[in-house]
Amino acid sequence: MFGPRRPGSLVPRPFGNSSIDGFDFDFESPTKDMVLVGERLRSRIETTTLSVGKKCLFTVALQWTEEYGEWV
C-alpha cells in the first residue's frame, strides 16, 4: 500500500506517489527478536533495491544505558 507505485494497481494511495523510505526505531526498554526484524527488513531492502533501482540503507545506532553503564 505504501511501497512503490505499481502499474495497473487499484490500491488506494492516501499519500499519492509518496513511499516510505525509512524507519527510526527507538526502544526505551529491552526488546526481543530484533535480529529477526533486522533480517526481514534487510531482505525487503534488497528486494526493493533490485525491483525499483533505488538504493536503500540499513543502519543502527548504539544507545547508552544507565542501568548497565555501557553501550548496547
UniProtKB/TrEMBL annotation:
Species in which this protein is naturally found: Clohesyomyces aquaticus
MF-aspect GO terms: hydrolase activity, hydrolyzing O-glycosyl compounds
Superkingdom classification of source: Eukaryota
Cited InterPro entries: GH, Glyco_hydro_18_chit_AS
Protein name: Uncharacterized protein
Lineage of the organism: Eukaryota, Fungi, Dikarya, Ascomycota, Pezizomycotina
Gene3D superfamilies listed in its UniProt record: Glycosidases (3.20.20.80)
GO BP of this protein: carbohydrate metabolic process
